[in-house]
Structures are given as structure tokens and as C-alpha cells.
């Protein structure tokens, strides 16, 4: 534990991006939202990172730090600056170049749920409680955040969550697709790490192409973008593809290098 409210560190081939304000249930401060793009750039710059775990110390996150609201929403300029920081932070997590997994334990509410939705997958402990609560505060959820929610659970369930502001348990979250796995609390971390370490054995170029293609489709593309076409072609010219073929022929595990 350090005094840094958010940080990342290497754990083998994984990056672990951790919220560290347990006394405040990992409420996300303005400084933490602003730190996210910087931390994500650092993660993307590390060639040894194969996947990212996003987590909280103790619970996942109770959401944005409401004690700051009197300051950050004091006037139009401060409101615009704060909302831009939140959007940039979540966009940076969504844009990570490696697969990302939210490890959700305990509370995952409001901006915390938005952070989990910015990840590719969500593994939850069985006592997790999830919800999005702007209707309880008189706020509106951003377009980008609403898009992620609708893409994950569908429009009717997104309306239910946003209209009611209610918290749901892990079983319901799994049933509606808000989370992808539910494990007993004591097993959730090990399951997320095991899955992420499994991804570290897969071809990085294949993972990157899959992630970017799905993102392009969800953004409305109905054919290749310049980026997805380039990623597709690059995979077939890669040393990893040659290694995959050789490993298959030799009946051994492949040793992918991301090139």
C-alpha cells in the first residue's frame, strides 16, 4: 500500500492498474481521472505487458468523489473541465492496446461502474454490487458512457439501470451481461489472473486485431477501416504467424513475440 491513490505495476506479463483509496471505497477524485490517460500511455509503452487488470484495493469503486462536487461543478468552466477529465480517463482505458479485465469486488457504482465498462471484460466476486446512479443525484450520464452500457447490456436493460439507479447483485449482473464471470469472492482474483495470464500466451497481434475490429464494428463500421485492414494484413506477414505454424507442426507451445 502506498499513498498514491491510483497506480499501475507489473505482475509478470500483466499490468495491474489499481485504485488505492480504500478508506473512501476508492472514490475516484479529479486527480485520479486525470492520471488515467498518463498511466494508460505508460502501460501501452511497455512491450512486456500482455494484458491489464483494473482493480480496486478492497472494493472496486464507489464512484466519483462526491465530496469534490461543490468545487468541480462550481461554474460552467469547472464543470466542463471536470467532465472532460472523466471522459478522457475512461476513453484511455477503453483504448488500451492490450486486453483489459475489470476485477470487480464489492461496490462498483456510478463512475466506478463506468470504469469497469471501459474494460474489455469484467470478472466479479459474488458479493459485488453494481449500479449507475445519476438519476439519484440529478445528473446525466454522458453519451460515451451510455454507449458503452447499451453495447454491453442492451437498450432496455440500460434504461432500467439508468432510470432506477438501483444496485444489482452479481448474479443479476451476470444474467444481463454486465459482467462476464462471477466467482466466490475469495476466488475472483485468482480467476482473473489465470485468465489474463492465459492471454499472455496468445499472439499479441491477433488479440490487437480482434479488439480493434470489434471496437470498429461497435462504433458503426460495416467494413474495414484503414486500421483494421492494416492489422489484418500485418498478422499474415508476421513472425508470430510463422511461429504459430511451426509450433503446430512440431506439436509444441508457440512462443509469440508480438511481431
From TrEMBL:
Classification via SUPFAM superfamilies: ClpP/crotonase
Signal peptide: none
InterPro entries reported in the protein's UniProt record: ClpP/crotonase-like_dom_sf, Enoyl-CoA_hyd/isom_CS, Enoyl-CoA_hydra/iso, Enoyl-CoA_hydra_C
Pfam families (alphabetical): ECH_1 (PF00378)
GO molecular function: lyase activity
Record GO biological process: fatty acid beta-oxidation
Keyword Lyase (UniProt): yes
Protein's name in the database: Enoyl-CoA hydratase
Amino acid at each position: 500500500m502506498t499513498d498514491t491513490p491510483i497506480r499501475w505495476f507489473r505482475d509478470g506479463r500483466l499490468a495491474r492498474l489499481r485504485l488505492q483509496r480504500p478508506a473512501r471505497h476508492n472514490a475516484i477524485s479529479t486527480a485520479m481521472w486525470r492520471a488515467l490517460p498518463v498511466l494508460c500511455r505508460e502501460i501501452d509503452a511497455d512491450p512486456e505487458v500482455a494484458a491489464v487488470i483494473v482493480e480496486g484495493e478492497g472494493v472496486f469503486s464507489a464512484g466519483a468523489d462526491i465530496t469534490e462536487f461543490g468545487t468541480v461543478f462550481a461554474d460552467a468552466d469547472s464543470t466542463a473541465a471536470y467532465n472532460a477529465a472523466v471522459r478522457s480517463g475512461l476513453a484511455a482505458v477503453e483504448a488500451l492496446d492490450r486486453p483489459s479485465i475489470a476485477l470487480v469486488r464489492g461496490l462498483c457504482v456510478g463512475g466506478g461502474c463506468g470504469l469497469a465498462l471501459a474494460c474489455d471484460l469484467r470478472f466479479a466476486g459474488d458479493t459485488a454490487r453494481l449500479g449507475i446512479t445519476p438519476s439519484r443525484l440529478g445528473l446525466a450520464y454522458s453519451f460515451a458512457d451510455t454507449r458503452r452500457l447499451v453495447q454491453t447490456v442492451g437498450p432496455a436493460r440500460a434504461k432500467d439501470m439508468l432510470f432506477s439507479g438501483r444496485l444489482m447483485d452479481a448474479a443479476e449482473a451476470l444474467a444481463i451481461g454486465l459482467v462476464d464471470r462471477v466467482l466466490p469472492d475469495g476466488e475472483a482474483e485468482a480467476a482473473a489472473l489465470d485468465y489474463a495470464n492465459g492471454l499472455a500466451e496468445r499472439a499479441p497481434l491477433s488479440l490487437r486485431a480482434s479488439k480493434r475490429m470489434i471496437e470498429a464494428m461497435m462504433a458503426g463500421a460495416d467494413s474495414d477501416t484503414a486500421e483494421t485492414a492494416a492489422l489484418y494484413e500485418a498478422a499474415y506477414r508476421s513472425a508470430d504467424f510463422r511461429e504459430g505454424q511451426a509450433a503446430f507442426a512440431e506439436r509444441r507451445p508457440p512462443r509469440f513475440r508480438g511481431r
